[in-house]
Batch of 3 targets.
Target 1
Amino acid sequence: MSLLQVKNLNLFLDGKKILDNLSLDVWEGHVHALVGPNGAGKSTLAFTIMGLSGYQNIQGDIIYKGESITHMGLDERARKGITLAWQEPARFEGLKVKDYLKVPSHGKDKKTLEQVLNQVGLEPANYLNRAVDKTLSGGERKKIELASILAMKPRIALLDEPDSGIDVESLEKIFEAVKILKKDGTTVVLITHSLAVLKQAEHAFLICCGRLLKKGTIDKISRYFGEKCIPCDHKNRPQNSQQGSSS
């Protein structure tokens, strides 16, 4: 049932321990959420799973479809069906949206490109010939990146802060796209500190200081957003959780 397993993962960056003996299982065909305060290690975990440069010198293991990918490079992991949507999508000066969408979709036809743009709430006639550059807002680039993932149909999609830079109306389109990904067989991990995004998932992990504190149902993990701190043994944990500080 587990598509991806993270086992006893440790990562040091600039001499600081960012991931601390972290273990979790991502179930195939589900929408998961990875939540926690800023600096908890959420994005770092996604970068490590993806195998980005600077995040490969780890202790522990990452198992994908029963195979260790710990020593595989970014390109090989991508070919196996793992993809990452950035919190701040990249710009590509001179590259048109239609060409950007064709790369991960293996040159699919114009009808498919129009379909995925519609699914994220962008009018194809207004965007296919636009450049993926500074003329697009951050929210527009995020939608286009998500459209590329819809066209790609990966095995697992790590979506880092999918609501960042997105207005309330557009957010519903993002949530619809997540449902489409699941329907198409993609396992989704939503990396977030938003209760609204958490509610799109079926199962969640709460991490802090690079450690897994809790896992379980959305109702169970959503308590974090009200309390802002849960009992743990971190040295900075408030003596009284009613103080409202994050552990």
Target 2
Amino acid sequence: MKRDGNILGRIASPSNLRLAFWKASKGLRDRPGVIEFGRRLDQFVGEARNELLEGAYSPGPYRAFEIRDPKPRWIHAPAFRDRVIHHAILNVCESTFEKGHISDTFACRKGRGRLKAIRRAERFCRRQDWFLKLDVRKYFDSIDHGILTRILETRFKDRGVLAIFRRILASYQTEPGKGLPIGSLTSQHFANLYLAPLDRFVKEELRIRGYVRYMDDMLILGDTSAALASIRQAVRGFALEALGLEFKPSVWINRTSLGVDFLGYRVGRGSTRLTSDGCYRLRRAVKGVLSGLDKEEISSLAAQNRLTAMVAFVDGTGNPSERSRVFRGIRAWSE
């Protein structure tokens, strides 16, 4: 695969940095800090351009906070200045990340996403009798910086860009040389690319047709449970040896006729519905939006956008009666 080079200048261009600010401020433009940043945008563009081109850019500290989704997770969000830099990087580099992926991986890719992954899983479930579901144990915390750097070097040859990638990786560690922060734009693309060698192994070495991956959630479909048990061992071995990753012990092999819990949906041969866990998350999200409106922490426009996304999540089942079922439950739960 041909590597991309001479791209640092495009990342550091004033027009790209301004576009990055516009993207990073989306949904945040009424916040005082973002308004003030916009007033000093010309100054930022000049300083950031020099830092990037001279190799002086260094990421700042992260803001850590806990969420429940529904299990507790720690989010480490970069400062707004770094958020803009990350957008500037992805504006230019996203197409190169895209080149490293097979067609059956769906996270962090334009024109794909969660619902496309569900549609793909539905098609495979109609054709195959058995499924294997895999999930990496502590995925973001387990990503090895050295292995990730080598994967990045197979796709980028611009030394300046690779140096920036290494600084971003070094800015956060769960243990020496490991870990990516959940909450960073670059982390999403780094994490998605990290499993690209596993995708290739599954498709090219094991020759598996029924395969769907959304970040570290993997679904493999086949004709027999015995065949999937053998595949599970091969995938586990490759993940540990090549990527230093372990899968969660709760590995599922079962019949597709019983339904497959995947990405918050229960995927079936005849219809797809939200799982109980998916409904719980949706209820919490609705409650959070309504609470934010009451406390004037979010605008009515932001609330409308979030609720529209929630309706789209329900409609992703492709089941016309599901919206009524779910939102009737939410009304009863919130009264």
Target 3
Amino acid sequence: MLFRLWTRKRSAPPENDAPVDRQEPQMFRPRIGLALGGGAARGWAHIGVLRTLESAGIVPDVVAGTSIGALVGGAWAAGRLDVLEEWARAVTRGHVLGLMDFRIVGSGLINGGRLAKLLQRNFGDVQIEELETSFAAIATEMRSGHEIWLTHGRLIDAIRASYALPGIFSPVKIAGRWLMDGALINPIPVSAARALGARVVIAVNLNADVFGRGTVIQAHGLETEPVEEIPDPRRDGNGGVFRLRKRFRNDVVGAGQGPGGIASVMVDAFNITQDRIARSRLAGDPPDVMISPRLSSVGLFDFHRAEEAIRLGAEAAERALAELADTVAALR
């Protein structure tokens, strides 16, 4: 039934020259838009959402994505979602670290060249304007803070700009503008999906289950703890270089207990800010249907847990199908 609801655009023509007043009323499907939010490794849940929508016969006419949402949404719009899903399910911790070309100097801890080559291999020189689906990747212009909707040009350039997390990835220059992560200004791009012509907008919020409602904790005291001295690997004659390299990796990504490495702390702080911005923007321009996968168990750098994230995304989309059907029925 759902398949017929979403694929049937109009009724069959009248038979035997039936009078106009006896014809079956025409039925039109409203233009569907999908707004895919940012959330680092939790973004694999978008794959599960798209798979569930496809199984129900729901094919979006418009896709707007921010950060990891731009990557997954762009892959779907370009017909490369199978390739991305296969790669994501095969990723291990070692693969993730292998793609992180760390550097000491520059505008980001990760150069991003290795990821760019991977995208080039899988997407080639696909142009956004050639896609059958209307697509926009959301980015933020440095210095001016302008919200940039990338709707033309090379798809991989738009995706890279949209996920260029400040301090982690280097900004990307497109048409004379230096661009970085769109989640700084529009974490869940409902407004872009509407502007591209969607009448019904489905939004996917990757952080709803992570940050919850947010609150204020008053009069919270801290217990003092002894400061742990970090050994200097330069003074260790046995494997000093290896220890230094391992120490650098742990400082950047993080390992074990504690607040995490530089990258973990930066991304976590960024996602908290993103969550507050998303709530504000969604209050002013709410989606017609919100899909909120329960992803609190998936860490920001857990790219190796794609299978779990995809399953959680699929489950969340399944829960939303009835509401989605009611919304469309009301707009016909």
